[in-house]
Amino acid sequence: MWKRYVAVYNGEAGEKSIYLDTVTKKLVVVEIEMTSYRSTIFSGFLGVTIYYVFGNVLFKSSLSSVTLIALILVIGCFGGTFFNLLINKIANSDKNKLNYLTNISEDELKAFLVKGRKQMRKNFLLIIFLFVMVVLSLLPIYFKEYSLLLLLASIFFTTLFIFFISIVSPVKRIKAYRYIEKNKITLLYSRSEI
Predict the structure, then answer these.
(1) What is the pLDDT of residues 57-106, one digit of tens each?
(2) At what angle do helices 106-142 and 65-91 cross, to 10 degrees?
(3) DSSP character for 194?
(4) What distance in Å separates the CA atoms of residue 31 and residue 141, rounded to the nearest whole number?
(5) Is the distance from CB of 33 to CB of 15 less than 8 angstroms?
């Protein structure tokens, strides 16, 4: 999936995050603000709706365990892809006013790269953890020991797994680090062109 901005360093709330713009090949700074509660309310509404729908599907139908696992994986993949497309659409929107990183020293850039690589390792471990959780939540369903809560947990972990793979993009992030290391001088001293 195509992403215009690849994370180099994700800051905490109130700090700056640095991304590599894959179109212009320049570093972009984004200020992180506090999260809106609209998404929390929407996800709660969506969770209750899915709980009701799948509760009826699980208890009123007699699906084989393999069919149920396939259904969970398909729904999880669709959910993760949907959220990824939504975030990419927001990030690539022309309404976003992005600031290119112009006043940074080589030491600051190196510090951001070191912190970003540490974050990438943690995110990669999180992806492995989510994969293990997907497998662990699907095993009881395969052996026909399932409940509605386990079904929803399986969908949730599958959606998160697909979402994190596409958001973290470990391969693209490694390529971005290599590009920055290779073209550090050009990125730091092309300020007059901006």
Answers:
(1) 665 567 787 888 888 889 888 888 888 887 777 666 655 566 776 677 77
(2) 160
(3) -
(4) 43
(5) no
In this structure, what DSSP letter does residue 22 have?
Answer: T
**Crossing angle of the two packed helices 148-168 and 38-60, in degrees rounded to 10:** 130
Contacts of 177 (CB under 8 A, 6+ apart): 8, 113, 116, 117
Q: Which structure tokens are listed for 154?
A: 């399986």
Q: DSSP string of 47-101?
A: HHHHHHHHHHHHHH----HHHHHHHHHHHHHHHHHHHHHHHHHHHT-TT---EE-
**Which pTM value belongs to this model?**
0.71
Exposure string for 122-132, b = 16+ CB within 10 A, e = fewer: ebeeebeebee
* Measured distance CA(171)–CA(191) in Å, rounded: 28
